Amino acid sequence: LEDLQDAFDFCYKVHYQPAENRNNDPTYIQELQTLQAKLQHLDRQRREVLAQMQQLLGRSETLQELLREELGGWRLRQQRLCLGAPGDTNLRPLETWFTELGQGLFQLRQLLRALNDLPQKVTYERDPLVAETPLLEQRLQEQLTHLLKSAFVVEQQPSTPNTMKRPLVLRTASKFSARARLLVRLHDRNHHMEARIHIDRWDPPPETPPTTRGVQQGPLVVTEELHLITFTLAYAYCGLELELETTTLPFVIISNNSQFSSAWASILWFNMLSSDPKASPFFSSPPLAPWPLLAEVLSWQFQSVAERGLSRDNLLMLAEKLLG
To answer: What is the distance between the terminal CA atoms of the chain, rounded to a whole angstrom?
Structure first.
Protein backbone atom coordinates (compact mmCIF):
# COMPACT_ATOMS: atom_id res chain seq x y z
CA LEU A 1 0.00 0.00 0.00
CA GLU A 2 2.85 2.38 0.76
CA ASP A 3 4.42 1.66 -2.64
CA LEU A 4 1.11 2.15 -4.43
CA GLN A 5 0.38 5.46 -2.79
CA ASP A 6 3.96 6.69 -3.30
CA ALA A 7 3.63 5.94 -7.02
CA PHE A 8 0.28 7.72 -7.17
CA ASP A 9 1.60 10.67 -5.17
CA PHE A 10 4.58 11.06 -7.53
CA CYS A 11 2.36 10.98 -10.65
CA TYR A 12 -0.11 13.38 -9.06
CA LYS A 13 2.56 15.95 -8.30
CA VAL A 14 4.14 15.63 -11.75
CA HIS A 15 1.06 15.50 -13.99
CA TYR A 16 -1.86 17.18 -12.23
CA GLN A 17 -1.77 20.88 -13.11
CA PRO A 18 -5.19 22.43 -12.41
CA ALA A 19 -3.94 25.99 -12.78
CA GLU A 20 -3.21 25.47 -16.49
CA ASN A 21 -6.00 25.29 -19.06
CA ARG A 22 -5.09 22.00 -20.73
CA ASN A 23 -8.54 20.43 -20.97
CA ASN A 24 -8.20 20.16 -24.73
CA ASP A 25 -4.74 18.61 -24.60
CA PRO A 26 -5.08 14.86 -25.43
CA THR A 27 -1.80 14.03 -23.71
CA TYR A 28 -2.89 15.76 -20.50
CA ILE A 29 -6.30 14.07 -20.60
CA GLN A 30 -4.58 10.69 -20.96
CA GLU A 31 -2.31 11.51 -18.04
CA LEU A 32 -5.37 12.38 -15.91
CA GLN A 33 -7.07 9.12 -16.92
CA THR A 34 -3.95 7.18 -15.90
CA LEU A 35 -3.88 9.10 -12.62
CA GLN A 36 -7.56 8.30 -12.00
CA ALA A 37 -6.90 4.60 -12.70
CA LYS A 38 -4.04 4.60 -10.19
CA LEU A 39 -6.28 6.18 -7.55
CA GLN A 40 -9.02 3.63 -8.18
CA HIS A 41 -6.50 0.79 -7.89
CA LEU A 42 -5.14 2.29 -4.66
CA ASP A 43 -8.69 2.57 -3.29
CA ARG A 44 -9.47 -1.08 -4.18
CA GLN A 45 -6.30 -2.26 -2.46
CA ARG A 46 -7.06 -0.27 0.67
CA ARG A 47 -10.57 -1.73 0.81
CA GLU A 48 -9.21 -5.24 0.25
CA VAL A 49 -6.78 -4.93 3.16
CA LEU A 50 -9.52 -3.63 5.45
CA ALA A 51 -11.84 -6.48 4.37
CA GLN A 52 -9.12 -9.01 5.18
CA MET A 53 -8.66 -7.47 8.63
CA GLN A 54 -12.42 -7.61 9.22
CA GLN A 55 -12.35 -11.29 8.25
CA LEU A 56 -9.43 -12.03 10.56
CA LEU A 57 -11.12 -10.29 13.49
CA GLY A 58 -14.26 -12.33 12.83
CA ARG A 59 -12.24 -15.56 12.88
CA SER A 60 -10.46 -14.52 16.06
CA GLU A 61 -13.84 -13.86 17.72
CA THR A 62 -14.85 -17.41 16.84
CA LEU A 63 -11.58 -18.71 18.27
CA GLN A 64 -12.09 -16.70 21.46
CA GLU A 65 -15.50 -18.36 21.88
CA LEU A 66 -13.82 -21.76 21.63
CA LEU A 67 -11.14 -20.71 24.11
CA ARG A 68 -13.83 -19.44 26.50
CA GLU A 69 -15.48 -22.88 26.39
CA GLU A 70 -12.15 -24.65 26.92
CA LEU A 71 -11.27 -22.37 29.82
CA GLY A 72 -14.70 -22.94 31.37
CA GLY A 73 -14.13 -26.69 31.14
CA TRP A 74 -10.73 -26.29 32.78
CA ARG A 75 -12.21 -24.24 35.65
CA LEU A 76 -14.86 -26.90 36.24
CA ARG A 77 -12.23 -29.67 36.26
CA GLN A 78 -10.10 -27.66 38.70
CA GLN A 79 -13.09 -27.10 41.01
CA ARG A 80 -13.94 -30.80 40.94
CA LEU A 81 -10.30 -31.76 41.43
CA CYS A 82 -10.31 -29.72 44.65
CA LEU A 83 -13.13 -32.02 45.81
CA GLY A 84 -11.20 -35.20 45.03
CA ALA A 85 -12.50 -35.91 41.51
CA PRO A 86 -10.06 -37.22 38.89
CA GLY A 87 -9.18 -34.84 36.08
CA ASP A 88 -6.43 -33.17 34.05
CA THR A 89 -5.81 -29.49 34.82
CA ASN A 90 -2.66 -29.02 32.73
CA LEU A 91 -2.63 -25.43 31.46
CA ARG A 92 0.05 -25.83 28.77
CA PRO A 93 -2.34 -26.35 25.80
CA LEU A 94 -4.48 -23.36 26.85
CA GLU A 95 -1.37 -21.25 27.33
CA THR A 96 -0.18 -22.13 23.80
CA TRP A 97 -3.55 -21.23 22.24
CA PHE A 98 -3.96 -17.99 24.23
CA THR A 99 -0.42 -16.88 23.39
CA GLU A 100 -0.75 -17.64 19.66
CA LEU A 101 -4.03 -15.71 19.45
CA GLY A 102 -2.51 -12.84 21.45
CA GLN A 103 0.44 -12.65 19.04
CA GLY A 104 -1.91 -12.51 16.07
CA LEU A 105 -4.02 -9.75 17.59
CA PHE A 106 -0.99 -7.66 18.55
CA GLN A 107 0.34 -8.02 14.97
CA LEU A 108 -3.00 -6.78 13.63
CA ARG A 109 -2.74 -3.88 16.08
CA GLN A 110 0.65 -2.91 14.62
CA LEU A 111 -0.75 -3.16 11.09
CA LEU A 112 -3.67 -0.92 12.00
CA ARG A 113 -1.26 1.68 13.38
CA ALA A 114 0.67 1.57 10.09
CA LEU A 115 -2.59 1.94 8.14
CA ASN A 116 -3.45 4.99 10.25
CA ASP A 117 -0.28 6.71 9.03
CA LEU A 118 -1.07 6.27 5.31
CA PRO A 119 -3.86 8.90 4.93
CA GLN A 120 -1.53 11.55 6.35
CA LYS A 121 0.31 11.43 2.99
CA VAL A 122 -2.46 10.48 0.56
CA THR A 123 -6.18 10.75 1.20
CA TYR A 124 -9.25 11.49 -0.86
CA GLU A 125 -13.03 11.69 -0.64
CA ARG A 126 -14.57 8.51 0.88
CA ASP A 127 -11.14 7.21 1.88
CA PRO A 128 -11.92 3.81 3.55
CA LEU A 129 -8.92 4.15 5.86
CA VAL A 130 -10.38 7.32 7.37
CA ALA A 131 -13.87 5.85 7.69
CA GLU A 132 -13.21 2.26 8.82
CA THR A 133 -9.90 2.18 10.71
CA PRO A 134 -11.25 3.69 13.98
CA LEU A 135 -14.02 1.05 14.13
CA LEU A 136 -11.49 -1.72 13.48
CA GLU A 137 -9.25 -0.35 16.21
CA GLN A 138 -12.14 -0.34 18.67
CA ARG A 139 -13.10 -3.90 17.78
CA LEU A 140 -9.50 -5.08 18.08
CA GLN A 141 -9.04 -3.30 21.42
CA GLU A 142 -12.14 -5.04 22.79
CA GLN A 143 -10.86 -8.43 21.65
CA LEU A 144 -7.40 -7.92 23.16
CA THR A 145 -8.88 -6.68 26.43
CA HIS A 146 -11.22 -9.65 26.71
CA LEU A 147 -8.48 -12.13 25.80
CA LEU A 148 -6.01 -10.79 28.36
CA LYS A 149 -8.57 -10.52 31.16
CA SER A 150 -9.76 -14.08 30.65
CA ALA A 151 -6.15 -15.32 30.38
CA PHE A 152 -5.34 -14.38 34.01
CA VAL A 153 -6.30 -17.43 36.08
CA VAL A 154 -5.63 -19.03 39.47
CA GLU A 155 -3.44 -22.02 38.65
CA GLN A 156 -3.22 -23.32 42.23
CA GLN A 157 -6.07 -22.80 44.69
CA PRO A 158 -5.20 -21.90 48.32
CA SER A 159 -3.88 -24.92 50.22
CA THR A 160 -1.65 -25.77 53.15
CA PRO A 161 0.80 -28.68 53.07
CA ASN A 162 -0.64 -30.63 56.00
CA THR A 163 -4.37 -29.95 56.31
CA MET A 164 -5.31 -33.56 55.59
CA LYS A 165 -4.36 -33.01 51.93
CA ARG A 166 -7.47 -30.88 51.30
CA PRO A 167 -7.30 -27.52 49.52
CA LEU A 168 -9.46 -24.51 50.45
CA VAL A 169 -9.30 -25.18 54.22
CA LEU A 170 -6.57 -23.04 55.81
CA ARG A 171 -5.40 -22.73 59.40
CA THR A 172 -4.63 -19.49 61.21
CA ALA A 173 -0.92 -18.78 61.75
CA SER A 174 0.00 -21.42 59.14
CA LYS A 175 1.66 -20.96 55.79
CA PHE A 176 -0.34 -21.64 52.65
CA SER A 177 0.25 -21.28 48.93
CA ALA A 178 -1.79 -20.05 45.97
CA ARG A 179 -0.58 -19.22 42.48
CA ALA A 180 -1.93 -17.15 39.58
CA ARG A 181 -0.82 -17.51 35.96
CA LEU A 182 -1.13 -15.35 32.86
CA LEU A 183 -1.79 -17.62 29.87
CA VAL A 184 -0.69 -15.00 27.31
CA ARG A 185 3.10 -15.17 27.47
CA LEU A 186 3.68 -11.73 26.00
CA HIS A 187 4.82 -8.81 28.11
CA ASP A 188 7.08 -5.78 28.00
CA ARG A 189 10.40 -6.81 29.54
CA ASN A 190 11.04 -3.22 30.61
CA HIS A 191 7.78 -3.25 32.60
CA HIS A 192 8.03 -5.03 35.94
CA MET A 193 4.94 -7.17 36.42
CA GLU A 194 4.04 -7.99 39.98
CA ALA A 195 0.65 -9.13 41.24
CA ARG A 196 -0.98 -7.36 44.17
CA ILE A 197 -2.78 -9.71 46.52
CA HIS A 198 -5.87 -8.90 48.57
CA ILE A 199 -7.61 -11.27 51.00
CA ASP A 200 -11.17 -10.47 51.93
CA ARG A 201 -14.13 -12.07 53.66
CA TRP A 202 -17.72 -12.26 52.58
CA ASP A 203 -19.80 -10.32 55.06
CA PRO A 204 -23.54 -10.99 55.19
CA PRO A 205 -25.84 -8.08 54.31
CA PRO A 206 -26.08 -5.79 57.38
CA GLU A 207 -29.77 -5.00 57.05
CA THR A 208 -31.05 -8.56 57.67
CA PRO A 209 -29.53 -11.07 60.10
CA PRO A 210 -28.59 -14.19 58.09
CA THR A 211 -29.82 -17.69 58.75
CA THR A 212 -27.08 -20.29 59.23
CA ARG A 213 -28.04 -23.62 57.64
CA GLY A 214 -31.57 -22.29 57.67
CA VAL A 215 -31.85 -22.77 61.45
CA GLN A 216 -29.81 -20.38 63.60
CA GLN A 217 -30.21 -16.60 63.53
CA GLY A 218 -27.10 -14.46 63.90
CA PRO A 219 -23.60 -14.28 62.40
CA LEU A 220 -22.14 -17.21 60.49
CA VAL A 221 -20.02 -19.73 62.36
CA VAL A 222 -16.32 -19.62 61.46
CA THR A 223 -16.51 -22.78 59.34
CA GLU A 224 -19.11 -21.11 57.11
CA GLU A 225 -17.25 -17.83 56.63
CA LEU A 226 -15.98 -17.89 53.08
CA HIS A 227 -12.89 -15.90 52.07
CA LEU A 228 -11.39 -14.95 48.73
CA ILE A 229 -7.93 -14.03 47.48
CA THR A 230 -7.89 -11.53 44.61
CA PHE A 231 -4.81 -11.17 42.40
CA THR A 232 -4.46 -7.86 40.53
CA LEU A 233 -1.86 -7.43 37.79
CA ALA A 234 -0.76 -4.28 35.93
CA TYR A 235 -0.11 -5.54 32.39
CA ALA A 236 1.78 -3.68 29.66
CA TYR A 237 2.80 -4.74 26.15
CA CYS A 238 3.33 -2.82 22.89
CA GLY A 239 1.77 0.32 24.31
CA LEU A 240 -1.31 -1.46 25.67
CA GLU A 241 -1.81 -1.15 29.44
CA LEU A 242 -4.50 -3.06 31.34
CA GLU A 243 -5.30 -4.05 34.90
CA LEU A 244 -6.04 -7.76 35.10
CA GLU A 245 -7.81 -9.46 38.00
CA THR A 246 -8.56 -13.03 39.03
CA THR A 247 -10.05 -14.58 42.16
CA THR A 248 -9.57 -17.88 43.94
CA LEU A 249 -12.35 -20.24 44.86
CA PRO A 250 -13.81 -19.43 48.30
CA PHE A 251 -11.94 -20.97 51.24
CA VAL A 252 -12.46 -21.37 55.00
CA ILE A 253 -10.00 -20.44 57.76
CA ILE A 254 -10.02 -22.56 60.92
CA SER A 255 -8.10 -22.23 64.17
CA ASN A 256 -7.88 -25.91 65.18
CA ASN A 257 -8.32 -29.35 63.64
CA SER A 258 -11.62 -30.00 65.40
CA GLN A 259 -13.19 -27.52 62.96
CA PHE A 260 -11.85 -29.29 59.88
CA SER A 261 -14.81 -31.58 59.14
CA SER A 262 -17.33 -28.74 59.31
CA ALA A 263 -15.08 -26.52 57.20
CA TRP A 264 -14.60 -29.22 54.59
CA ALA A 265 -18.37 -29.80 54.50
CA SER A 266 -18.80 -26.09 53.73
CA ILE A 267 -16.26 -26.31 50.90
CA LEU A 268 -17.99 -29.37 49.48
CA TRP A 269 -21.42 -27.78 49.69
CA PHE A 270 -20.35 -24.55 48.00
CA ASN A 271 -18.42 -26.19 45.17
CA MET A 272 -21.20 -28.68 44.51
CA LEU A 273 -23.81 -25.99 44.08
CA SER A 274 -22.10 -22.79 42.94
CA SER A 275 -19.80 -21.84 40.09
CA ASP A 276 -19.57 -18.14 40.94
CA PRO A 277 -16.79 -17.31 43.43
CA LYS A 278 -18.27 -13.85 43.96
CA ALA A 279 -21.84 -14.96 44.59
CA SER A 280 -23.70 -13.35 47.48
CA PRO A 281 -22.87 -14.80 50.93
CA PHE A 282 -23.60 -18.46 50.27
CA PHE A 283 -24.36 -19.78 53.76
CA SER A 284 -26.74 -16.98 54.66
CA SER A 285 -29.30 -19.11 52.84
CA PRO A 286 -27.64 -22.32 51.64
CA PRO A 287 -29.38 -24.17 48.80
CA LEU A 288 -30.43 -27.80 48.96
CA ALA A 289 -28.39 -30.45 47.14
CA PRO A 290 -30.00 -33.29 45.16
CA TRP A 291 -28.90 -36.75 46.31
CA PRO A 292 -27.36 -37.87 42.95
CA LEU A 293 -25.01 -34.87 43.02
CA LEU A 294 -24.07 -35.39 46.68
CA ALA A 295 -23.56 -39.13 46.04
CA GLU A 296 -21.07 -38.36 43.25
CA VAL A 297 -19.12 -35.95 45.44
CA LEU A 298 -19.05 -38.44 48.34
CA SER A 299 -17.68 -41.05 45.96
CA TRP A 300 -14.90 -38.63 44.96
CA GLN A 301 -13.91 -38.33 48.62
CA PHE A 302 -13.26 -42.05 48.86
CA GLN A 303 -11.57 -42.18 45.47
CA SER A 304 -9.13 -39.44 46.45
CA VAL A 305 -7.89 -41.32 49.54
CA ALA A 306 -8.70 -45.01 48.88
CA GLU A 307 -8.04 -45.10 45.11
CA ARG A 308 -11.57 -46.25 44.31
CA GLY A 309 -14.97 -44.66 44.61
CA LEU A 310 -18.16 -45.92 46.22
CA SER A 311 -20.18 -48.70 44.61
CA ARG A 312 -23.91 -48.53 43.95
CA ASP A 313 -24.52 -50.64 47.08
CA ASN A 314 -22.30 -48.34 49.15
CA LEU A 315 -24.23 -45.30 48.00
CA LEU A 316 -27.58 -47.00 48.59
CA MET A 317 -26.57 -47.74 52.19
CA LEU A 318 -25.53 -44.10 52.72
CA ALA A 319 -28.76 -42.86 51.15
CA GLU A 320 -30.81 -45.02 53.52
CA LYS A 321 -28.87 -43.77 56.54
CA LEU A 322 -29.09 -40.11 55.50
CA LEU A 323 -32.54 -39.98 53.92
CA GLY A 324 -34.45 -42.94 55.37
So the answer is: 78
